[in-house]
Amino acid sequence: MVSLVLLLLHNRVFWLPKPLLNREEGEPNRTGRSWIERWERGIIALAQPATAPSRAVQTSTVADLARFFPEATPVRIPVQFTRTGSQPGGDSAQESTVIEFGTCREVLFACATPLEFADVLRLRNSDGSLDTEASVVAVQYHPGATIVAARFLNAVPNWIVKP
């Protein structure tokens, strides 16, 4: 009697329906053996090995600089900047760019103009709601791009990032 109960318990797994291994009903088994046979032989493998692209977001070089500003928030504000207070006889550089990160006191962006620490910039957006000066506080040089963090010299009352 006990052996009959054990036999029934042992075979219980075979009373359940077999799962469909990533295939539709009626589709042939691509691996050639059922999963039970492969389990008994110790052969557990994918039917078709493959690789998948990473889901990690590619970070920009501006995001790399933003790591040093923990309160930085992603923003996308198109602006035009002009380097002011340049060396005597030097021309003021002017360029359009996009502010990618901002804090309540700093902006971070990429540009093609080679800027240096303590350069003073005048930042303006197209509708004139942002028109202020900022001083460069951090610079990273990359091939073809300069990554800049600039701190506002005066309080900006209508700045999007609040303390």
Would you report the number of β strands?
Answer: 6
Q: Specify the biggest β-sheet.
A: 6 strands, antiparallel, barrel
Helix proportion: 10-25%
Q: Using the coordinates shown, work out and report the CATH topology of the largest domain.
A: Thrombin, subunit H
CATH C-level of the largest domain: Mainly Beta
Corresponding CATH architecture of the largest domain:
Beta Barrel
What is the topology, as strand order, of the major beta sheet?
1-2-3-6-5-4
Mean pLDDT: 77
Order of helices and strands: HHHEEEEEE
Helix-strand category: alpha+beta
Shape: elongated
CATH superfamily of the largest domain: predicted glycosyltransferase like domains
Strand residue content? 25-35%
Q: How many independent structural domains?
A: 2
- Measure the end-to-end span: 78 Å
Report on the architecture of this protein.
The chain is of the alpha+beta class and 163 residues long. It has 2 domains: 40 residues, no CATH class; 92 residues, predicted glycosyltransferase like domains (Thrombin, subunit H, Beta Barrel), CATH 2.40.10.220. 13% of the residues lie in helices and 33% in strands. The chain is built from 3 helices and 6 strands. Strands 1-2-3-6-5-4 form a 6-stranded antiparallel barrel. It starts with a helix and ends in an 11-residue tail after the last strand. The mean pLDDT is 77.
